[in-house]
Amino acid sequence: MSVQAALAALPPLREMLSEHGLLADKGLGQHFLLDLNITRKIARLAGPLDGVTVIEVGPGPGGLTRALLEAGARVVAVEKDARFVPLLEAVAEAAPGALRIVLADALTVDEAALADGGPAAIISNLPYNVGAPLLVKWLTGPFRPTAMTLMFQKEVAQRIVAPPGSSAYGRLGILTQATSHAEMVMEAPARAFTPPPKVDSAVVRLTPRADRPEPGLLADLQKVTQAAFGQRRKMLRSSVATLGGADLCAAAGVDPTRRGETLSVDEFLAMARALRR
Ligand code: SAM
Question: Could you tell me the distance, in angstroms and rounded to a whole number, from the CA of residue 30 to the centre of ligand 1?
Answer without folding.
Answer: 6
